[in-house]
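Because discrete structure vocabularies remain unfamiliar, we first show an illustrative case, written as a sequence plus integers encoding its fold.
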Amino acid sequence: MLVTILGIRGTVPSESSGTVGILVNGCVLFDIPPEFIQSMLKARRRWNKLREEGLLPAAFLGYPPPNLARIEHVFISHFHWDHWGGLAHYLRWLRLFHHELRQDRPLHIYIPKGSMMPFKQNVIRAWPVKDENEFLALSDADFFSRFLSIELHQSIAEIVRIHVVEPEQSFFIENGKYRISCAETGHLPQGSVAYRFEMWKEKLELERLKELGITPGPMIGRIKKSKNGMLINGKIITKEDIFTREVTSILCYSGDSPVDEKLANFYAGADLLIHDCSYLHPRDVYYLDRHADLETLVRFSCQIKGLRTLVPIHFSHRYKDEEIKKAMVSYIPTSEVQILVPKAFSFILIKKEIISVL
């Protein structure tokens, strides 16, 4: 699994970093900040420079560099501007450069259930509607599709598919290669979620083939592609009869969220937890603000069963880069969980027992 950190700041960008965006394996994006396109181009430039200078390790070479055209899924954690403000700009980019491609392969956008209600209420305040109840009853997906069409001055239906996700929901994408799970974070009264991203791998069970009297060969590929299975030796054999599936790596992303012990099980077993850390000290936390601080977050991460690595992110603009690095480094010697100091346009490779960072 290759994770690209597009930005580490919260609310507003700094001179060295944009706001948070997390790209996984080049095709799955968690949150899309206002400066998204520029951050993607900078990440791609850094990747290419590392490769040209011979500084890109061999393990990274099996992955493509960040590419705006390769993104297939955009997961939005909640609708504060720094987490979705780049979407309209990105859709306009797709229309300009990849319109025909996206007609056959639409971009999938996932939004939390209930996240559109503040938008609807704001519209009513600005432009009173004839039937408020009917307007408020519009589904989240329908409203957001209409909203984006206004932003882009044209319909987006032919290049985009909008999906509404709910807490405790799980589903597969990319033909069963990845599983996504959702959990409510409490950052907002409704419509804010954390995501769990799992990579799944299929394993051919050779012993099972022997039991079924099937010889390894081209037949295996035909069984795998068949929707209803194939008749072999008088039996219908399906893909599920000869393949098992296992999780190979796990990433969890909190979006904006205070530390919530109820989410410990949701984050359990993760190779990488990327978690909101707006504040470096508990004393800085504004009592109405639903964000996390570094001290509380590190303590919480050590209680999460099986967690390998913590990446604090979404730092407040009040802190300079040097302050962030100094505060985080101070926790590394005593933490039971590995802590990575994030940088914008950095790459994290998760491969079996090894986590590499560039």
Remarks:
- The mean pLDDT is 91.
- Residues 206-241 form one domain.
- The two ends are 14 Å apart (CA to CA).
